[in-house]
Design a protein that fits this description.
688 residues; Rossmann fold; 4 domains; 39% helix; 26 helices; alpha/beta
């Protein structure tokens, strides 16, 4: 496979990147290089090239005018020129995109070794990639890195938003890093755009042998450089909130008494050149550093090398310090992984990708960056509680191995393969049985059973679909994690979204079903009523256009349903797992969604089979009727089902004595659509 990455902004070179030398020379370059190196190391990869923009700016390095740069085995950086030969910021680059499109297409025309797939980073690069697809038919994968529209109300440039919307709509697949990106940010661009979004965590590249002498040089000016350190590493842009962190420190006698503050805010001399925002941020930081209470306790190194950053991570960890990222919004947070890899606990913004990292690794605390008191308390907690500090340090150091570029490349190459050879939609065998199964604990839970189920889907004269409480992106991620096949259709978010394949094999939202839900759904009114009722909402990433999710028992769900009914708000309230509550439009739910899917595919109700294990599966299992008049003919309950789903279950719904995917296969065998599950004879005989 020949892979082409396109990343136009910043100073992209290798192996030594001068991070922070400009405002756009940041984490996305580390991402592109880490991804490309991992892909180049794979045996099936013929070549990997990174296409970026050439420019002539000697103060940033002569290499950026070099058209071809060999980086390593099978890995090359290729630079293309535009009429403006100087360095351009991301905003200024916008005007050059048409010329870069022309140059990129001309370069491809001149070559016999065109790529098999193009992976575009940011929407400006996607414009080049989509032009290449139109001309040469090369599939396009898009990674946005940072989207203009987010729940934080970030600065919105109309041209950028238009480009991002087009990239999300037209790319064959979109790869993001965090749930905030997949389930919140992308959703802001329109319903249905998440259908082709995949969440794949990036890797982290860390040298384990830092130059410890380098740290000392970076800490000059501190009265006592051996004290614990609060370390921050970010570009000096407003959304990174470095000034906010400095102000919290300057106002806190407790933090000043306990630790030094060290902020590595890019390369001051070059990063701020001609950029008013960066100049203002650096000026504010320097002013705070000169305050009487911070002088000698706060360091702002004006320049650094890559090895200096590693040395500071190492020094902060050895000294019992912490890493702080209080960004207003952080799409992912590679610096958090770097800190964790060194055993440095983190205090991070709860807005964006850091929630995924901190939750996954248990390596620190997440806070509201606007809440200065909470941020101060979190930093003091880790600095003073040695038991908590040690646990976070150990968890981060040992767990960060899960963020591996080789693993990323493995998953992403599967996505590449899928967009090159998509499962086609369109014509459908409507005489075949349609199995619609829940995912979590119905199919998942036993890897061997998952393998047997995958083998069944490969040969069965039946169609596989899923009905899950998860979002479409999370559903696909979990299926991939358990090596389960991608289904023909997805019913997601507790039966409020249906995704079908179009003639190109792309998943698209069933807008007819969406219109039915929207007709009777006052989302704002329901949300306001839920707040008045004391509803405990789940995280923002769990909220959907037609689903509001919270915590509570079945009794609490009944109370909420009655409360909303008294206020003439027609909803469906679903309780599951003894602690989760979902509030849906009255026309929603898995039973109605599965019946709508069957009608859309032309499958007779008696040929529809559903399988599940928990409360949010109850309505589709209870709707099962052998005559299929409800739109569902047969139901299967696996042996590990929760008690909540068994109450009121029709007698004709099959309760398998086998658990997880084996239980589904057993139910299919009873209906004549699968062979008996091998190795489970004793369990089956005992159930007779």
């Amino acid at each position: 496979m020949k892979i082409c990455h396109i990343a136009l902004g910043g100073c992209l070179t290798a192996p030594h990147v001068n991070y922070g030398v400009t405002e756009d020379t940041g984490g996305h370059i580390a991402y592109v290089l880490g991804a490309a190196r991992a892909q180049a190391a794979r045996p099936e990869t013929t070549s990997v090239e990174i296409v970026t923009r050439a420019f002539d700016a000697p103060h940033l390095g002569a290499v950026h005018a070099q058209e071809v740069q060999d980086v390593g085995p099978k890995l090359t950086i290729r630079r293309i020129w535009s009429p403006n030969r100087g360095y351009l910021t991301k905003e200024a680059l916008s005007a050059e995109i048409p010329a870069l499109v022309t140059a990129f297409l001309a370069d491809l025309r001149s070559r016999a070794d065109r790529p098999d797939i193009i992976h575009a980073h940011f929407a400006d690069a996607a414009e080049l990639a989509l032009a290449a697809r139109k001309t040469f038919g090369i599939p396009v994968v898009y990674t946005p890195h940072s989207l203009a529209l987010s729940k934080t109300g970030a600065e919105a440039c109309t041209i950028r938003i238009t480009r991002e919307t087009e990239a999300l709509k037209r790319s064959d697949a979109t790869i993001v890093s965090s749930r905030d990106e997949s389930d919140v940010q992308v959703d802001a661009y329109g319903a249905g755009l998440q259908a082709r979004v995949h969440r794949v965590a990036p890797g982290v590249t860390v040298t384990r042998r830092p130059d410890r002498a380098a740290a000392g040089a970076m800490l000059r000016g501190l009265n006592d450089p051996d004290r614990p350190m609060i370390l921050a590493v970010a570009r000096p842009v407003a959304r990174k909130n470095l000034v906010g962190l400095a102000r919290i420190y300057a106002a806190s006698k407790a933090l000043q008494a306990r630790a030094n503050l060290v902020i590595l805010a890019g390369q001051h001399q070059t990063a701020a050149r001609g950029n008013a925002e960066l100049q203002g941020q650096l000026a504010s930081l320097k002013t705070i550093a000169r305050m009487p209470q911070t002088a000698g306790r706060m360091a702002l190194p004006p320049s650094h090398r890559p090895q200096d950053v590693l040395a500071l991570y190492d020094a902060a960890a050895r000294g019992g310090g912490i890493f702080a990222n209080l960004a207003v919004h952080e799409p992912f947070g590679l610096t958090l992984l770097e800190a964790a890899a060194h055993g440095l606990p983190v205090v991070a913004t709860r807005d964006g990708g850091p929630c995924d990292i901190v939750s996954d690794l248990s390596c620190g605390l997440c806070v509201d960056p606007a809440d200065h008191a909470a941020s101060e308390a979190a930093m003091m907690s880790l600095l003073t509680d040695r038991t908590r500090w040690s646990a976070a340090s150990d968890h981060g150091r040992t767990g960060v191995a899960r963020y591996d570029w080789a693993t990323w490349a493995d998953k992403v190459n599967d996505i590449y393969a899928a967009v090159q050879r998509p499962m086609r939609g369109g014509a459908y065998h409507n005489t075949r049985p349609l199995l619609v199964s829940d995912i979590d604990n119905t199919l998942t839970g036993d890897r061997a059973a998952c393998g047997r189920f995958a083998n069944w889907t490969a040969t069965a004269q039946a169609t596989f679909a899923v009905a899950t409480g998860r979002s479409v992106c999370e559903a696909r991620r979990v299926l991939a994690k358990w090596a389960l096949p991608e289904p023909y259709a997805l019913v997601t978010s507790v039966g409020t979204e249906i995704y079908l394949r179009n003639h190109n094999g792309r998943f698209v939202l069933d807008r007819d079903f969406a219109k039915r839900l929207e007709a009777g759904w006052d989302r704002a009114g329901v949300m306001a009523a839920l707040k008045r009722a004391g509803f405990v909402f789940q995280a923002q990433v769990e909220q959907r256009r037609w689903k509001l999710s919270g915590f509570g028992t079945a009794q609490e769900a009944a109370r909420i349903e009655a409360y909303l009914a008294r206020r003439s708000l027609p909803v469906r309230v679903v309780a599951s797992h003894g602690r989760l509550i979902d509030v849906l439009p009255r026309a929603g739910g898995k039973a109605r969604a599965v019946a709508a899917l069957a009608r859309r595919l032309g499958v007779a109700g008696r040929n529809v089979i559903v399988a599940g294990d928990s409360g949010n599966d109850a309505d589709m299992l209870e709707a099962a009727r052998p005559d299929g008049l409800s739109g569902i003919g047969h139901g299967i309950v696996v042996a590990n089902a929760l008690p909540e789903v068994l109450t009121g279950l029709p007698h004709h719904v099959y309760r398998s004595p086998l658990a997880h995917a084996d239980g589904v296969l057993d139910g299919l065998a009873r209906l004549g659509h699968a062979q008996p599950v091998k190795g489970q004879t004793a369990a089956l005989e005992a159930a007779e």
